[in-house]
Amino acid sequence: MSSKRLPATIDAMTCPRRLFFYGTLTHEHSNTLTQTLLPRLGGRPRRGWVRGALYLRHDPMGVYPVLMPGSGRVHGWVYGGLRPIPRAVLAAFDAWEYCDPRRPARGEYRRANLIVHTRGGPLRAAAYLPNRRAPIGLRAVPGGDFAAYAAARGLSVLSE
Question: pTM here?
Answer without folding.
Answer: 0.86
